[in-house]
Every structure is written in C-alpha cells, then in structure tokens.
Amino acid sequence: MTRELQIGAAGRQWPFSRGLVAESVLNAGASPEVAAAVARRVEAQLRAGRRSSISTVQLKVLLVEVAQDIGGPALSASTQRQTAAFEDILVTAKKGELPFSRGVLARSLEDTGLSPREAYAVASQIDLRLRQQGVRSLSVAEIDDLTERTLQDLYGEQLKLTYRFLRENRGRLGVMGSGGDAPAPFSKGILTQSLLAAGVPPDSARKVARVTQRQLRGAEDRLVERRVIRERVEQLLEAEVGPEVAARYRLLQVIRHPPRPLVILLGGVSGTGKSYLAAEIAYRLGIARVVSTDSIREVMRSMVSPALLPTLHASTFSAWQALVDPNAEQPDHPSTEALLAGFREQVQQVSVGLDAVVRRSIEEGMSVVLEGVHLVPGYLSARHGAIVIPMLVTLPDEDEHRRHFESRDKQTTQSRPLHRYMRYFEEIRAMQDDLEALARRLDVPLLDSLSIDESADQAVDVVMRRLLTELSPAERLNLLGQEDLRLEEIGLAKAAEPLESGRKLP
C-alpha cells in the first residue's frame, strides 16, 4: 500500500495536493497547460523518491527548479518571489499567529450582504494579491485595510464602510440608511428618545424600544435597514398606543433624515431661555448642530474693529448708543425708534455670518438649529435646497422674564451680570414687542410657554407641520408611504391654528 505523501513539519502536516502546486504556478503567470505540466512533474519526482513527507521549504525549492526546466527563467524567478499556495501566510493577532484562511474571510464578508460566491471571490482575490507580493506575514489591521480597499475597488464606498462597521462593532447590530452612509450602531436609548419626541408615553416608549431590540437580535442579520426598523416600530406603536402616534413617529423619522436639510431659526430677546430650548429641540429631533448667533457675532467682532463697526461691538439693547451724534448729549435711555435702529443695524451685520452658516449647512446636507436674538423674522428668507422653519420665543409675563435673568445670573456665576440686563430691561421688553408684531405680520409661530418641555413640544409640532406642508406629493409617498397624510392623522390639527402671544398650553 502506497503511503500518502504529507506536506509540512511535525505537528502540522497535510496531504500533498497537485492542485496547490498548479495554483502556485498559475499565480506566477504561467498558462494552465504549463501549470498542469509543472504540477505533474513535481508529483512524479516526489513519488519517485519514495518520500513520505516534505517541508514547504523543500517543496518550494523543487517547484522553482521544475518551473525553470519547463517554463524558463522568468517563470522560475516569479515562482521564487511569490508565496506559494501551499505556504502559510501568517496573520498576527492578539492571541498569536494564525494562518490566513480564505474561508474565514469569506464568511465575514457574507455579513456585509455579499452572496457566498461573491464573498469567496473577494477573499480569493485578496489571497492572490498577498501571494503575488510574496507576503509571508501581516497584521490583522493590514489585512483589514487590504480588504477595505478591495471592497471599495469592486463594490464602492458603502460596502467598504459596512465591512469597517462590522469589524469595529463585532456582535453589535448595525443600522443602514439609504443614502450610502456608513452603518451606525443600533441604540435602544436613541430609539426611546425618538419615541418620546413623537409623544409616546415613557413606559410605552421603553417597552417598544425593548421589544424592537429583542426582535432584531433574534434575527441572523447583523445589519438591518432603517426602513425595516421603522416598520417594526410602527407596528408595535399601533398596537400599543394607536395609529395617530405611529404616524407622528413616521413623520419624526423623516425629520431626522429629511430629503433636504432643516434650518430651524429660534429667535427671541435675551433672557427667554432660547439656548436651553434650542438644545432640547435639537435633542428631540436628532439634530447634531446647534449654533448661537452670539458666537457668530463674537467671531465677526474679532475680525472687525470697533472703530469700523461700533454697533457690532455693543449689546443688541445698547447698540443705539453707537448711533448717537458724538456732539449730542447721550440719554440714559433711548427712544423706541433709536433703540430699534441700533438693534436692526447689528442684526443686518450679524446676518452676513448667519447666511454663511446656513449656506454651509445646505452644502453639507446637515440640518442645523440656529438660536439668538439676531434671528429676526424676515431677515433670513427661504433658501433653495433647505426647509427653513422660523420661530420666536417670547415671555409675555414681565415678572417671569426678570426671574429668568436672576436665575441665569446665578447659573453663570455672574459672568453675565444681572444689573446690566436690569438697567435695560424696558428696552429688552420693547424689542420683544417689536419682534412679536413682526412675527404676527409674517406668520412666524410664537413659543410662549413658561415650561421648556411645553415650548419644546410646541416647537416639534411646528417643525412637523411645516415639514408636512413642504414635502411634495412624491416625497410624501416615498418617505411616508402615502401622498395625503393629513394633520389630523398625526394630532396636529389644533397646532395648525396660529399661536398667539401669551397663550398658555392647556
């Protein structure tokens, strides 16, 4: 009985394979006929020598010699340079060195959505590249980098990013959008947040998020489309709290991933709580970018001297002082006309910077919440390529307005001194009156609740209502599944009425 020829060293041997020898010669550039002839000659010489085993080094020497005899010096040199198919390529990992395996890599590639045949073809191409370059060892990071580049060359950026996500988030669920972006980790907390923003009661929101996560983890796929998650959540919401809330949730998901960037303008005078409210609105709507007009003004101040633009370097309620004739006596308090003239001049100056921020957000396709006193109704008009939603924050109650300043003085450790705002409190109130009148004239909604939560609820309703009216019938059908979704179906019929200054929410 002929003893089977083994390749390798003691402790790790495997049967001789003429196919691996032929593959090595093919990788070196030989034709199939030459590769088959070389493989037959190598096997014949090994059998003739009656050997029971041979090391990979010895087999490589023999292969190079036979390649020289049959294919010539060029084929012999190419065979010598490469890593033969029967030689291990060692991958250095935390637990030591392991042989590179096309099969293992192919199985991980299948998780990206490739078919088994496509995944094995990619793994084989990577194996070929490494062997033709004569690579004998490499790190996990290097093989991951090569895999990403190969995926990008063959299938594009999205599949590369998908593979990277799976590699960096092993065992975690990934959420894929439809815009070609990289997958993002599934978060039960973020889902709960979006449910709360849609008006789902806290207990129901946590339950729906928990059940959704359990269902997704029970599936085989590690990556799931955002559309699939939304459909599952809507089904659970309809059963848990009814179709109206499910429809609100669907619209809120469109807000989080709108067809055009949202530009939310939150105006209002000092002390009305705009900054806190802007942060809360951005949190509820999943908008990462919040910009204060005060910060834009500060940047502009650093670039322009007070001598050139004195009104820019003053507060909005004291900008009028820069317009007083130097030869005239300066009053302690301005007339309403002078007050508004100084305020509007600074608004026009800062609007240059605001316009640049809006343009950049549109170019990047990023939604943004802008907040500040300089967001006067009518100064930043509609922009092509964006959905602009202006709102005005007011405090009808003077005593409550004073308490806001007192509270801010304590929270900021007097970095924004109370006495300064109290000195010009009447001017600030006059500015608010003017802004309210302008907002009514231009149909800009007023957020006048005393509670941050109530004002945020109002704001989210305004955004939903505005988005619903801005979407074209085709966009409604594509994003919401129906062309004629009405305000009443998502509980916005009452909110559609004009908001009046001073009106409290029930």
Automatic annotation (TrEMBL):
* Entry-linked SUPFAM superfamilies: P-loop containing nucleoside triphosphate hydrolases
The answer to whether UniProt assigns keyword Nucleotide-binding to this entry is yes
Q: Which InterPro entries match?
A: ATP-cone_dom (IPR005144), P-loop_NTPase (IPR027417)
Which segments cross the bilayer? none
Domain annotation ATP-cone: ranges: 173-260
Give any GO molecular function from the UniProt entry. Answer: kinase activity
UniProt KW keywords = ATP-binding, Kinase, Nucleotide-binding, Transferase
NCBIfam families given in the database record: PRK12337.1
* Protein name, entry field: 2-phosphoglycerate kinase
- Source organism: Deinococcus rubellus
